[in-house]
Design goal:
Length: 412
Amino acid sequence: MSERDTARAGDQTAVLVMAPELRPAATAAQSGPPASPPVRPIVDVTVRAAWPALALYLGLRTFSILVLWLFAADRNRGLLDVLSRYDAVHYAGIVARGYDAAIPLKADGTLAITNLAFFPLFPGLTALADPILPGGPAGAGIAVSWLAGIAAAWGLFAIGAHLRDRRTGVLLAGLWAVLPHALVQSMGYTETLFTALAAWSLFALLRRHWLTAGLLCTLAGLTRPTGAALVAVIGLAALIAVIRRRDGWRPWLAGAIAPVGLLSYVIWVGHRLGRADGYFHVQKDAWKMSYDTGAFTAGTVHAALTKPAPLVIYTNILLLLLALALLAILILDRLPWPLVVYAGLIVAMAFFGDSYFNAKARLMVPAFPLLLPIAYALAAGRRRIAAVVLAALTLISAGYGVYLALAWTASP
């Protein structure tokens, strides 16, 4: 190789590695999963590259939990007890006793809530961790959530770095750590595990690693019913690739395996209860959860504007409006459509739910693409501004987490 060829190759490598600002233009132009470019930039998502994002995430979450611990101790409350309430109790119960054989009945003969509404991957991982960790199933569930939170932050870094640069990835992970409902990321809840699987599945899709995307989608479908949003995105992307005759047999297989996890559990619940609609029967008749045209959400907002309501209701109203605004920005900025559709479906599932208004913001925790416009803006500005914004959001998140854990009397 001549010196001229060597220099030319070095220049090309420098463009790919050192000029991440070239990526957004290429990404924004995509109307579907990435087309086949002559040269595909390699994104470094190793621990060596991602450690600032992981350190930032852990630091911010640790600060919030330390604040919660101080306030809980002042009220003679144990931190383990505070972080293992509500849904975490059901998951711990599945680990200890297994799933209900049937929907239990109340004293008056009506249906009671049942743990059949909860998907199996999180309690399965908790059961694996339980024998080797202190705190019983509750402590193991919290540990699984923390580990999943690290994996989620890593996945968010990967997506941010893929779309723009490492700084964007770090900020995306940091912003997700200080959401108002970030408390549940440190509880025995499934939001962190689902977000981790969704983030890495979408990253694989953006890189056209079809089998990885499909397998992770299968696991996400075993984690939460919101896995349906990810199944829809992977399935649509696979269909587009098949129609355009791209990537051979891989999109076919990815589209086929994506819904397996979700459908498997729904079918299993139906078999256990002896009726094909068993899972939907559990949701609608035992848990009183379904979907409408938005009437429940609109009615709750109207009621809150006409008479006093708890702080959590006003917070959820504000966050729903903010989510819709950020979703509009995602569309206008022409970000890759899989991220936009995924976020839109997560928001829609929260908005059109006809119960548990207090949990709507928590249901949107996995909608991390909504944070991309904020991450972009902070990454483009001065570091001091980003630091101030993150510090302010951290204080707000920590304070609101204390309210949700110690003052609010229902599930966050």
